[in-house]
Amino acid sequence: MKRLSNLFCLFFLFASGYSQEFKGTIIRVIDGDTYVFQTEEGSFTVRMYGTDAPERDQPFSKESADFLKRYLNKDATFKSNGTDRYKRRLGTLR
């Protein structure tokens, strides 16, 4: 019984905390919290987890996007922890 309980706990630990890491670069900034990330395998759109930047028609949207553009074409690691309703990957950038 203890073994089954341990397996059950491990399953939920990995299922709830599942994440992937990708090495690559930001190749395009869409707005202050969305960008395109390029890896050796291809590219995908990312929505930054825990960040809400102004949209294009809102005040300070240009400043927000310009801040993110400082990281264009620099080596980075992206850690994905899911997708949003628009099929963008959610995660953090390092």
Textual characterization of the structure:
The longest helix is centred in the N-terminal third of the chain and has 15 residues, at 2-16. This protein is globular. With 94 residues, it is of the alpha+beta class. The model has no long low-confidence stretch (mean pLDDT 86). The relative contact order is 0.23. It has helices spanning 2-16, 61-69, and strands spanning 20-31, 34-39, 42-48, 76-83, 89-93. Strands 1-2-3-5-4 form a five-stranded mixed beta barrel.
Set out the fold topology.
Blueprint: H1 2-16, E1 20-31, E2 34-39, E3 42-48, H2 61-69, E4 76-83, E5 89-93
Parallel strand pairs: 3-5
Antiparallel strand pairs: 1-2, 1-4, 2-3, 4-5
Could you tell me the mean pLDDT?
86
Number of helices: 2
Shape: globular
How large, in whole angstroms, is the Cα Rg? 17 Å
Detail the poorly predicted runs: none
Provide the β-strand percentage band.
35-45%
Classified by CATH, the class is: Mainly Beta
Give the CATH architecture. Answer: Beta Barrel
- Specify the oligomeric state: single chain
Number of domains: 1
Major β-sheet strand ordering: 1-2-3-5-4
Largest sheet: number of strands, sense, barrel closure: 5 strands, mixed, barrel
| Helix-strand sequence | HEEEHEE
Instruction: Give the end-to-end Cα distance, rounded to a whole number of Å.
Output: 42 Å
Percent of residues in helical segments?
25-40%
